[in-house]
Amino acid sequence: MNTEPIINYFSNISPLNKAEINVIKKVFKERRIKRRQFILQEGDVCKLNTFVVEGCFRMYFVDEKGKEHNIQFAVENWWIGDIGSFHSEEPSKLYIEAIENSVILQIKKKDQLDLFVNYPKFNQIFRVFTENALVAYQRRVLQNISSSAEERYLDFVKRYPYFFNRISNVQIASFLGVTPEFLSTIRKKIAKS
Known about the structure:
Structural class: alpha+beta
Mean pLDDT: 93
Oligomer: single chain
Order of helices and strands: HHEEEEEEHEEHHHHH
Shape: globular
Low-confidence stretches: none
Largest sheet: 4 strands, antiparallel
Radius of gyration: 18 Å
CATH class of the largest domain: Mainly Beta
Number of domains: 2
Distance between the termini: 49 Å
Number of helices: 8
Helix content: 40-55%
């Protein structure tokens, strides 16, 4: 099992000592996920927090009409999970699907809570991670209520240039809340200017 990526991730926030590195190796479990395989489906309780070592995932919601709405993408060194379901232990309304063959490291809620108690540095690290995620979600909500589709697309291109060879235009359109046809129109307009 290769825990080096997550050890580096944590160490970039706050350097780890030998005991902290050893506990990481113990509590995180590696899984190999095939493209189009789910690590969470609607109705399941999210029991694992997931760190992406290799690959790409999407988290999405399916509305009453059967339309998919992408909420988050995650690539290497990103976290993905239904935070609400993970903490409340209630069934999720979300799906998490691999867009590519992937390798992930997962931790159970009990093990994560034990980390916080027995190794307080992880409480700080996860707080930083959670605050960053909250900032990103808040930015996205503000953008959705105050920016045009073109502005949202340009911001997406600027913030996440590494997604474009990995995520289809249909997936990007869903994330931005527009149809693929409208996204195509936006891209043509931008290319002309």
